[in-house]
Structure formats: C-alpha cells, structure tokens
C-alpha cells in the first residue's frame, strides 16, 4: 500500500533543493523531464538540468545524459546548451551540498 506517488510534488521539492544547492536535485530534475514525470516530457530541459549537475561533478547522471543526447537533434542540443548556461548562471552561486552531504562555502 504505502504512499501514492506525486511526481509534480516531487518536482517542486527538487526545485527547492536545487535552490539550496543540492547537486543531485539538478540531475533528478533532468530525469523527471526526460521521463515526463510530473511534467511534459522535454529532452531540452532534461539535457540542460543534467548538464549542470555533471558540470559540478555529479557523475551518476552521465549515462542518462548520453541517452537523452542520443534522442536530440543538433538544434535541440544547441538550445539545451544555451539553457544549461542560463541555469548555471542562476544556480552556481547557491551554497552546495557536496557528495558527502556537507555544506560547502562559495
């Protein structure tokens, strides 16, 4: 039985975690866009969110990132790279939780 899944609610919380600098949340947002969980499936958003997680050294999303990339046109990748840069500028200055669960100073 357990708790019902609410992907929209999960996405909301992943965004809050992203704003707090939780690196895994960036990749998880990408996974949700890639699968259409709680959002309309969007490979551009998926690729962009996973890109910033990978840029920060979160390696666990590399395989999914490659899979998403394989389903994208050159134009979509260009758009996703632009979005990734915009997201990076927005989120890079947030404090980060490193892979050991500890806060890092900016």
Keywords:
two-stranded antiparallel ribbon; 2 strands; mainly alpha
Structural class, by secondary structure, is mainly alpha
Number of helices: 5
In N-to-C order, the SSE pattern is HHHHHEE
Helix content: 55-70%
Strands, count: 2
Spans of at least 5 consecutive residues with low confidence = none
Characterize the biggest β-sheet.
Answer: 2 strands, antiparallel
Query: On the 0-100 scale, what is the average pLDDT?
Result: 86
What oligomeric state is this?
single chain
Distance between the termini: 43 Å
Structure description:
The chain has 106 residues and is mostly helical. It is 62% helix and 4% strand. The chain has a two-stranded antiparallel ribbon with strand order 1-2. A hairpin with a 5-residue loop joins strand 1 and strand 2. The longest helix is centred in the last third of the chain and has 18 residues, at 74-91. The chain is globular.
